[in-house]
Amino acid sequence: MFLYQLINFFFAASKKEEDSKYDLSLYKRGDLLEVPRTLFTHFGIYLGNNRVAHLIPDILPAISKNKSAIAKMVTNNRLLLGVILKVASVRVDSVADFAYGSEILINHMDKVCSQPVLDGDEVARRAEKLLGSVTYSLLWYNCEHYVMYCRYGMAISYQTYQFCTTVRKIVCSRMTAYLTALCGGGTMLYLGCVTPLMVLPTLLISFTIWMAA
Length: 213
Known about the structure:
By secondary structure, the protein is α+β, with helices and mostly antiparallel strands. It has 2 domains: 19-164, endopeptidase domain like (from Nostoc punctiforme) (endopeptidase fold (from Nostoc punctiforme), Alpha-Beta Complex), CATH 3.90.1720.10; 172-212. It contains 10 helices and 6 strands. Strands 5-1-2-3-4-6 form a 6-stranded antiparallel beta sheet. Helix 6 (120-129) crosses helix 7 and helix 9 packs antiparallel against helix 10 (196-212). 24% of the residues are buried. Residues 1-17 have low confidence and may be disordered. It comes from Seriola lalandi dorsalis. Pfam families: LRAT. Keywords: Membrane, Transmembrane, Transmembrane helix. The active site is at 143 (acyl-thioester intermediate).
């Protein structure tokens, strides 16, 4: 019993220290908060009273009905599995749980987006209206799409655009065209089946990549 109370004491103390890391007076209702999380930047909308609405992938609601466990801070493992299975929700967490120990940028996207910022109460109202389970898509509907719609009225994702641009540069390059032709030719020689049915697709794919580069 004493050990249980001791563990709870240390947990509560560490939680209080984590919460005190963030000065809540810096945030206003409707602010767009931004933190680095795993491979991408994570976004949320501040609702006031130490509450942040954010869209986050989470595998736990798909495999458990334990509401208290689901309500706990989403770990990186839960997040990554949620991304793979396209399971997510728009939920409300404390600033500390949302930030996951990272530094928070406030309204940084105002400098990037050319659209005018909506009124703070309208931003928060939109964020609250969308609470609940959603189908997640890394490219078409992620946390950035959510906050951009709430704050600027347009669901776009700059980091997704940058990701797609980078992938395009890698895939649609002359080096990729060379490698595709070499791999296709090498495979045909290894299998001993150099036929028009095999040669034409290899040439067509390589030529398409070459022209797109």
